[in-house]
Amino acid sequence: MPGYALVVDEQFEDGVGPRWVRLIHGYGDQVWSPGCLRLQLRPGPARPYSLSQLDDYHHLSRRHDYPWRPALRLTVQARFSHREEMVGTAGFGLWNAPFSGEVASSPVVAPQAAWFFYASPHSHLALSGGWSGHGFFAQAVRGPAFPSPLITAGWWLARCPLVGRLIWRMGASAVPAGELPLEVEPTDWHTYRLEWTSEGVWFFVDNEEVGRTPVVPRPPLAFVAWMDNQYQTVSSGEGGLVPIPEAQWLDLARVRVEVLKSE
Question: With contact defined as beta carbons under 8 Å apart, do 39 and 60 qualify?
Answer without folding.
Answer: no
